[in-house]
Amino acid sequence: MEKKRGPVKGAGRKWAARLKELGKQPPPQDLVDKINGTTSPSHPPKNTEADENKKIAQPTKKPSDLGL
Amino acid sequence: MILKDAGALAQHLRKQEGEIVGCLADTGFLYALAYEDDRLFEEANDVLEVLSDFHVPIYANVISRLEFIDLIFRKQVTTGAIRIYESIDGSTKHKNLFNLLKNIRDQDTAHRNQGLSYKVDENRLKRLRQEFETATGFSSWKAFCQQYVGDLLVNEWRYLEDDFDLNFVEILEGQLSEHFNAPLYWADMVKIMAESGMRGPDAMIVNLFSKSKFPLLITTDFDFETCLSATTANQTDKTILIL
């Protein structure tokens, strides 16, 4: 069958989804271990934006009921 | 004629008689099709749907082809660098690498907050490769590239060009081809640079479009409006869609 002229319908969004999927892959564990200087098989994520925001938002002193 | 969106393009193409030979596209449009964090992602994809409806193939020159693949490469490296940063320990002894990865992540966040799609620049790319090699050896850098870039650029690229019906115009100095009304000369492109203050790749597109049989140019760069209006002033069959 002869190919139709022009782009395939939805081709851009399909490629965007594919590229996004590629970007979600975890990095090679071997590489992460070399940077961390460890040989353990897995490490939980350390530097997500959510974690950093949480650290900033944490109070430096525990709340006390003395002032109530 | 200047058009501003997919709706106007559809209306314009509906009025055309016969098959449209194709449209010329710049790198900004091609990149906007592929990345959701580009501010023109939705608009560009709406335009692609119109081109699909009217069976209009896309053409780009070899410079745009190189720029497009280079942008995708740099974007994939950026994404991979952020994934690495999110996976490593802040107490790593490889502080230079850690700080560079953090800087890339911060740049990406800052750009995203402004609706812009961030890609590592040449300087950061070179530093990233150096720091990876120092910290983990060349084989690790290769493994990183293979994971985030390799298969995409090597095995899947031709499918992208097929799906977009993306074709490339290559023409030698002073020669003609089926897509041109007049031969292309390097001196004409340089003249456009000198008179309009455009950079070489953009001046090349202006020169190519004005001499070609393509009736439509799709771009994300509003600089083309003034320059092309002057260059194609007596060509009433030329239309520019500026997203």
What does this structure look like?
The complex is a heterodimer of chains A (68) and B (243). With 68 residues, chain A is mostly helical. In chain A, 46% of the residues lie in helices and 0% in strands. Chain A has helices at residues 11-24, 29-36, 49-57. The N and C termini of chain A lie far apart (80 Å). Chain B has a six-stranded parallel beta sheet with strand order 1-6-5-2-3-4. Chain B has ten helices and six strands, in the order βαβααβααααβααβαβ. Chain B has two domains: 2-63 and 164-242, no CATH class; 68-156, no CATH class. The two termini of chain B are 14 Å apart. Chain B is elongated and about 65 Å long. In chain B, helix 2 (27-34) packs parallel to helix 4 (62-87) and helix 8 packs across helix 9. Chain B is an alpha/beta fold and 243 residues long.
Main sheet: strand order of chain B? 1-6-5-2-3-4
The count of strands of chain B amounts to 6
How many DSSP-defined strands of chain A?
Answer: 0
Stretches of chain A where pLDDT falls below 50 for ≥5 residues?
none
Main β sheet profile of chain B:
6 strands, parallel
Mean pLDDT of chain B: 91
Gross morphology of chain A: elongated
Whole-angstrom Rg of chain B: 21 Å
Shape of chain B: elongated
Sheet of most strands of chain A: none
- Write down the domain tally of chain B: 2
